[in-house]
Amino acid sequence: MAKKDRKADEPAEKDREKWMARFQVRLAMQPGVDRAVVLQAVKEVTAHCSETGEHPRTAFGDPDAHAVQTAARLVPADQAARAKRHNTVVDALDSALKRVGGAAGLR
Q1: Mean pLDDT in residue range 79-87
Q2: For 28-72, what is each residue's pLDDT tens digit?
Q3: What is the CA radius of gyration of the chain?
Q4: Do 53 and 94 contact (CB within 8 A), yes or no?
Q5: How far is C-alpha 92 from the geometric centre of its chain's CA atoms?
């Protein structure tokens, strides 16, 4: 039985890992996405690629775009809207606190 040439597979495997890592990060950044959504999406991509032998980029394209599409598919619109509003409020408060801290010399 011939041994599989691991060195030949390493660049392809690293590229797959990079694609998956970027996809996971970008997906987690989408409004309303929680750990369960990320895990479900990773499971879907992994299963598809295992069954077909395709690279995730070939099957799903750009990881950033796929993350946006996946979030839109897996996160209910009302949940995403609530999370987006919440993030906007938190960002505004953070910005105001930084301005106050800067004015008071607390940086």
Answers
A1: 66
A2: 999 889 999 999 999 999 999 999 999 999 999 999 999 999 999
A3: 20
A4: no
A5: 24
What are the residue ranges of helices labelled H in 1-107?
6-28, 35-52, 56-60, 63-74, 77-103
| The model's pTM | 0.68
> What per-residue confidence (pLDDT) applies to 53?
94
Sign of the torsion angle spanned by Cα atoms 40, 80, 35, 12: positive
Residue 107's contacts (CB-CB under 8 Å, 6 or more residues apart) are 101
- 59 is written with which tokens? 């099957």
Sort 32 into a burial class: Cβ within 10 Å, 0-12 / 13-18 / 19+.
Answer: buried
The more confident residue out of 93 and 33 is 33
